[in-house]
Amino acid sequence: MEIIEKALGEGKTALSEYESKKVLAAYQIPVTKETLVEDIKDLAKAAKEIGYPLVLKGCSSEISHKTEKGLIRVDIRNEDEATAAFKDIIADMDGKENAVLVQELVKGQRELVIGLTRDAQFGPCVMFGLGGIFTEILKDISFRVAPLEKRDALDMMHDIKGYKILDAVRGMEAADLDILAYILIKIGQIGMENDRIKEIDINPVILSGSKPIAVDALVVLG
């Protein structure tokens, strides 16, 4: 893929969140509606196109842990808040690429993680589990070697202890397992077709109603 070749040519070891989601979107994986803004004069137009409430994030291939670095502002409701958030984020970014990702706020209480790791013995392996802050704490994940068929993807979902989170619970719709299975299959396909991709980390995938949406993503190159 051109975006990967360009990054490798520039000596990068990872794609930015914006670039990572471009890779996902090329495989029809659902991602957040977003625009990359480098100049504050383009902020109002981007915000209007996406619509409030917004999330603003510092965006650079050199930054993988945006939350720890204080580079995320959530639930931005108007132009004044957006302008202040933009200025704060740019001031806190110490990398060369000073850009801000202006993103729709995806609402949903259930967060999943989907990813890819390239194993020395088995090659690309797809991962699925509970996401958000629970990824590190609970480590409730399952793996399959790519390529995946739909049956493999559905089995992966049932392998995690917290699989009932995908059911209709507490007034929330059941997750669309067909779309989730599609995403898992496509992640395996990305790994099979792009041998310079070492890892993919999509965390969180938020269930907005029944629909899974990739809210944050990181593609590591190797």
SSE layout and pairing:
Layout: H1 2-9, H2 17-26, E1 34-37, H3 43-50, E2 54-59, E3 72-76, H4 79-92, E4 99-104, E5 110-119, E6 123-130, H5 134-138, E7 141-145, H6 150-159, H7 177-193, E8 197-208, E9 211-214, E10 217-221
Antiparallel strand pairs: 1-4, 2-3, 2-4, 5-6, 5-8, 6-7, 8-9, 8-10
Helix pairs in contact: 6-7
Essential attributes:
222 residues; alpha+beta; Dna Ligase, domain 1; D-amino Acid Aminotransferase, Chain A, domain 1; 2 domains; 7 helices; 10 strands; globular
Report on the architecture of this protein.
This protein is α+β, with helices and mostly antiparallel strands. It folds into two domains: 33-104, 2-Layer Sandwich (Dna Ligase, domain 1); 110-221, D-amino Acid Aminotransferase, Chain A, domain 1. The chain is 32% helix and 29% strand. The protein has helices at 2-9, 17-26, 43-50, 79-92, 134-138, 150-159, 177-193, and strands at residues 34-37, 54-59, 72-76, 99-104, 110-119, 123-130, 141-145, 197-208, 211-214, 217-221. The strands form two sheets. Strands 5, 6, 7, 8, 9 and 10 form a six-stranded antiparallel β-sheet that branches. The relative contact order is 0.18.
